[in-house]
Design a protein that fits this description.
Elements lengths: L12 E4 L4 E5 L4 E3 L11 E5 L8 E6 L7 E5 L8 E4 L3 E5 L9 E6 L7 E5 L9 E3 L3 E7 L4 E8 L7 E11 L3 E4 L3 E5 L2 E2 L3 E2 L2 E6 L7 E5 L10 E2 L2 E4 L3 E5 L2 E2 L6 E2 L2 E6 L7 E5 L8 E4 L3 E5 L4 E6 L7 E5 L8 E4 L6
Antiparallel strand pairs: 1-2, 2-3, 4-5, 4-32, 5-6, 7-8, 8-9, 9-10, 11-12, 12-13, 13-14, 15-16, 16-19, 17-18, 19-20, 21-24, 22-23, 23-26, 24-25, 26-27, 28-29, 29-30, 30-31
């Protein structure tokens, strides 16, 4: 027996077996209930150990609460100078080197703990620069050994290999960084031979291929006109933070504690944000869109409020010293 629509109370909920969707009655019709997936645990940051023995450790930190790192598991190989990309459920570590360069990509499920498993292969074997992306697509930029200006992409939600993006970063080199909004992935800094640091910031529209756009320049407060390499990035959906790195050209440069910010939806040069608690390169960045996190080339992890300007403060410590590893989160600005 059918139900008279007038007998259905407004706000009633049903499961539609034909569409496999939840629906709510709005007085005259049934409407699908919009469901969005939230990042678990208030955002979790994963840090891969990198270039200090035993090379394969992963720690995690709960971004919403201060505290020290907790053991997550291990990568299957010993490597450093990799890139990392995360969505709300999965983290992917890509490339790197340990005696020889690697094209291996491995993944973990961020909300759990455990060892990494095989994901697929990069489009080339090298030490990639930064990693960014959105909920479905990961972006990898550039690399060294051999030097490359290739940008590549892959589908985070399935297993498989990375593919050439079809347009290249402005110069061939290494040690660039990356950060993302839901629509754009920004890449910044890096170096080319002979160890020349760059101040370029450029971007791609994450879900497209074939076009790289100039964004502006990294504004170096400490060394006018100099670039930066081995800087880290963290972002909300609207603002990106570039932190730390090595300024200028070897051997005249130095590690910096400088932080700069950009408004991702616009273009333009970066603006001074504040300072890290110490000068560092090879740091690792992540966020939950409110709090930015930077793991230094040691055990220290700094924090800051992305929406405001000011200096970073100490968040906690990792279980290990880290150098030239990489980090990711399940709540960054690209999601």
């Amino acid at each position: 027996m059918s139900i008279n629509p007038r007998e259905i109370p407004t706000g009633a909920v049903r499961y539609n077996t034909d569409s496999n969707k939840m629906e709510v009655y709005i007085g005259s019709a049934w409407m699908e209930v919009a469901v969005t997936e939230s990042a678990p645990l208030g955002g979790r940051m994963l840090v891969q150990q990198g270039g200090i023995s035993p090379y394969n450790k992963i720690d995690y930190l709960n971004i919403s609460t201060k505290g020290n790192g907790v053991d997550f598991g291990d990568t299957t190989k010993n490597y450093y100078e990799c890139a990392a990309v995360g969505n709300k459920t999965r983290g992917v570590f890509a490339g790197g080197t340990y005696g020889s360069d690697d094209n291996v990509m491995e993944f973990v499920t961020i909300a759990t703990t455990g060892n990494a498993a095989d994901f697929g292969d990069m489009a080339q074997s090298n030490n990639p620069g930064g990693g960014g992306g959105d909920q479905t697509r990961g972006i990898l930029t550039g690399g060294a050994s051999p030097a490359s200006n290739m940008i590549s992409f892959f589908n985070i939600t399935s297993l498989g290999d990375a593919t050439d993006f079809g347009a290249d970063q402005p110069f061939s080199g290494a040690y660039a960084g990356a950060l993302s909004s839901p629509t754009r992935t920004l890449m910044f800094g890096g170096r080319s031979s002979p160890y020349t640091a760059h101040n370029s910031i450029w971007f791609v529209t994450t879900q497209t291929t074939g076009i790289v756009n100039d964004f502006g320049d990294y504004t170096n407060q400490q060394h006018s006109g100099a670039g930066v390499l081995n800087a880290a990035g963290a972002s909300s959906s609207t603002r990106g933070i570039i932190a730390g790195g090595f300024n200028n050209t070897n051997p005249a440069g130095q590690n910096t504690n400088q932080m700069e910010f950009v408004t991702i939806a616009t273009t333009g040069n970066s603006t001074d944000f504040g300072d890290l608690t110490q000068g560092t390169q090879m740091s690792k960045g992540a966020s939950n869109c409110v709090r930015g996190m930077f793991a230094h080339g040691g055990t220290r992890v700094d924090e800051l409020n992305i929406a405001s300007l000011g200096n970073a403060t100490i968040f906690g410590d990792l279980n290990f010293s880290t150098s030239s590893g990489m980090s990711l989160s399940n709540a960054h600005g690209g999601l």
